[in-house]
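lol so apparently i was supposed to do this last week
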Amino acid sequence: MLRRMEEGARVLYTEDAIRQRVGVLAAEISRDYAGRDPILVSVLKGAAWFLADLMKATTITCRMDFMAISSYGGAEESMGVVRILQDLELDIGGHHVILVEDIVDTGLTLSYLLSTLSSREPASISVCALLDKSVRRIVPVEIRYRGFDCPDRFVVGYGLDHGERYRNLRCILEVDPGELEEDPLALVPYLERP
Ligand code: IMP
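anyway here it is w/ inosinic acid bound
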């Protein structure tokens, strides 16, 4: 449920709601991947928060690895053309891989990553995404583990940024990017602890 806090920003998912949902996803993954020792692969930087909490909540052996990518498109409007800036350390060939994403928007980035990782011949590959902006999808992608179906709004917090700020918000806020552009410090009150 949306809670209006002030003009221009609203809490979309509270810290509690996120924790609860991450726990459910981790339980599903623990059940499905018991004895399969999966590698959780994540893309820097936004998904790092989700990956860490998800992994902490699992009850099976698993490993993690990171990639860094840059898209040639605009900062917020992905064109699906992706360059790998930092590759995985682990060899995923023959291993079960779970690609952990913070948010799937058009699906262009995810479909590129899936084809790149699939070419390394993992035993299997599935996707776990915290937020799914499903109405924005251009390329169909299967998201086996999904946290929330996210409305078509710009969101920040829990790893997601606006100009590299606000990743440290513990909740996820829906914001007006135009207003933040004008006043980049507008969300400071949301960073303060009660
Ligand atoms: P896609 O290729 O269009 O699916 O783009 C996904 C990427 O766009 C995510 O990994 C984010 O980096 C970025 N992104 C999409 N929507 C948002 C948002 O609302 N807030 C912050 N980043 C976003």
